[in-house]
Here is the input.
Amino acid sequence: MADSIYIGYTFKVEPVQPGAEILIAELGFSGFESFVETPDGVIAYIQKSDHFEAILDSVQILNSEEFEITYDFETIAQTNWNAEWEKNFNPILVDDQCAIRAPFHEPFDVKYDIIIEPKMSFGTGHHETTHMMIQHILVSDFTNKSVLDMGCGTGVLAILAEKRGAKTLDAIDIDNWCYLNSLENVSRNDCHHINVLEGDASILQGKYYDVIIANINRNILLNDLSTYVACLNKKGSLFLSGFYDSDCELIESTCNQLHLKLEKKLKRNNWVALKFVQQL
Here is the structure.
């Protein structure tokens, strides 16, 4: 991966909200790997090897009369990536308890000061879904819990869960870059109980957890929910995000069929993060 080359698309969106959120979701389905939200739109990245001329044809919002979207793109060598992030990645603070920053930022005087070298991985805390999942973790009991962070991206949620007291953790992502990035971030934050794995839900067979965190997207969640529940210990908790408020009814209905009860809902700019508890 060290010699990977990426294509970077810079989109200007008007109105920027909720246009940027919808655009990110649709670009994710089209194969884009990472996003940086800007004041007037989005920068989206995809590996050059996965890029093709008609990559944007399935992105419906580009044809919507409700939004005015313009864009250009350029090839970005991997060696330039750190400079790109230094230009675009600002530290964030969640509920005055958890800071997420890059190594080149000054430390925060907070309980959880997490250092993330995001590179091409999703999960810096800037996106609403990651932000809300951090909020869930900050107010939930993780003491001595076994935890799965599914679709871990940068590994930030697993890192925070360990700092909140989790005893054993698996952080899993299907993307090789996310796998390597999570390994780096786990080490950087001096975590010793996180096992980073590369793969999808098929590698979960025979594994069991007190808490499962899955911040992915609606379709993958709906496809894999039964697998997650099969891995959930009695009275375990399932945290889900990566979808819009309009998707909640379908997500909750599916979870209810799997004997999960909605306990808490967070909403941020039309994105949601739900906490379910097993009822069996």
About this structure: The chain has two domains: 5-85, 129-278. DSSP finds seven helices and 14 strands in the chain. The longest strand covers residues 232-244. The two ends are 44 Å apart (CA to CA).
